[in-house]
Amino acid sequence: MTLPAMGDPAGPILELRGIRKQYGRLAAVDDVSLELRHGEFLTFLGPSGSGKTTTLMLVAGLQQPDSGRIILAGKPVDRLPPYKRDIGMVFQHYALFPHMTVRRNVAFPLEMRGTPRAEAERLVSAALAMVGLPDHGDRLPRQLSGGQQQRVALARAMVYRPALLLMDEPLGALDKALREGLQLEIKRLHREQRMSVLYVTHDQAEALTMSDRIAVFDEGRIQQIGTPSELYERPATRFVASFVGETNFIPGTVLGRDGDACRIAVAGVPMLASDRFSAQPGTRVTLAIRPERLRLSAAGEGVPAELVDLIYLGNARRYVLRLPDGTEWSALLQAGMADAATLRHGDAVRLTWEAAHATAFPG
Amino acid sequence: MGRWRLLRALVCALVGIYLVAPLVVVLIISFSSASFLRFPPPGYSLRWYENLVRDPAWMDAVWVSIQILVPTALLSTALGTAAALALIRGRLPGAGFVGAALMAPLVVPSIITSAGLYIAYRGLGLNGTLAGMVIGHVVVTLPCVIATVGSALRSLDPRLEAAAATLGATPAAAFRRITLPLLAPAVLSSMLFAAVLSFDELIVSLFVGSARLRTVPVQMWSNIRGDFDPTVAAIASLCFLVALIALALEALLRRRNGDRE
């Protein structure tokens, strides 16, 4: 096996092979392998304690893996200290140096690399202009707002054009409106600067908005890695289905196969679903169906239910449905959809879906 | 509520008077014209200050104190800062034990520490030497430096050092450019404290010093026990002034630091 040459745009910029990190008896990171392509925006998404931040720290060199390899730009770096890895990092709490002005903060990595002064000055000015703070260079970090501080941190981590930009929940300390503005700005910078980015967040909406690909972490392992639409449309595990977007989990029993699809009894009604594990008849399964994939009709085929609540959301309507066994499902219909528009509170309805939009998971 | 407030003010005033009164008495006596300690003095003069400057025993003591105080403050600050870094940031096996041992002079009665130093010095020939004196003073001022720098270090976000490392700073560069400048106010104020503590130190100096190596407090001690005149009040007033200046400097430093954060 040959490693791609350094800087080869075709090869991955970062490769993790079987990374493992143990804290006592707990495996914080358990056999994680992945590749990050040149110029790609890859997000680690998961709940706290899922191993996403620890994996980032291992890539940064701020922690050492117990085993596995980390290959950055074609070079194994897992034994190198952070200052010898060609990375930039943005922290959740900015980590700006409080005793230095904004300019000095941004100039710091250039100084550490021995960049000539005039060149450094030029790069710092360009970086500050890039993040929209060209006139804030002489201020101290504490004189800036949280959002401005994070922009400075971004400029500082990008000014020397590291091979890989690491971001550890960079927007976690900001309020919602500011967060959404900065999400788009980071996305724009990523696109314009053609940076390779490894981003950590626990916010699934943020991950869907920003990423080229998402790696969903749970219990120290990558549950699934793929594009936002792959994760959303074809979740590989029940955890991914529950963590990314909203999902109805519906119990059922396998009846048999029907071509590629699987025939499943849901509340006594035979329905179709796709599965990834060729379930045997009689197996109890859970179906995952997105609310916007449920179809409602007043009569005909489908699972019988009662409409117990109807919530108007402006651009959509949410229908809360109760099945005879008491479970509640949620359906979402875009405004302007003709069917179901006439339904009223307390009406009996029928629920259907396409086999491709319902995924069966064991258990 | 008004009554409680009055009571509180009264208690505070009493405590204040209790703390300050001896100082005031000493200050007044230092300007006495009488050749014995008497309060209130029968008249006022500067003769005891004059005596202080004229008497070579006092001037020698001041000189000895300075010769000890300066290297003590520098050494104690350097070593104490290094120790605080190792104890808090380092991964030192037995850090708890080492820390407790370094802080021991704070809780062990000074006379025990001093006697220990005296006995240890006998074999080393350090009794009655300037070096021995400085080492002794470093031992007793170290806890103050470790505590001051240590608490500043504990409140210093370790992510700043991590950030410096990801930006390409070697540990040495990160320390020089980030950690040390941020600790500087604490380091400087601990240096001031070490200097003042060294200047005030009596018991170690009594044990380790000699007739020829007398610090100001030792000279005061023997003065009080021997010919008892208001010169002692004059030097005490000067010591008080030195401590006051150190305290003011420290407050100034703190304020500048407060501006920064």
UniProtKB/TrEMBL annotation, chain B:
InterPro entries, per the entry: MetI-like, MetI-like_sf
TM region(s), chain numbering: 7-31, 61-88, 95-121, 133-153, 186-211, 231-253
Keywords carried by this UniProt record: Cell inner membrane, Cell membrane, Membrane, Transmembrane, Transmembrane helix, Transport
Keyword Ubl conjugation: no
Record-stated family: Belongs to the binding-protein-dependent transport system permease family.
Compartments (UniProt record): Cell inner membrane; Cell membrane
Domain (ABC transmembrane type-1): residue spans on this chain: 62-253
SUPFAM superfamilies (alphabetical): MetI-like (SSF161098)
PROSITE patterns recorded: ABC_TM1
Organism from which the protein derives: Plastoroseomonas hellenica
The protein, known as: ABC transporter permease
Membrane topology of this protein: Multi-pass membrane protein
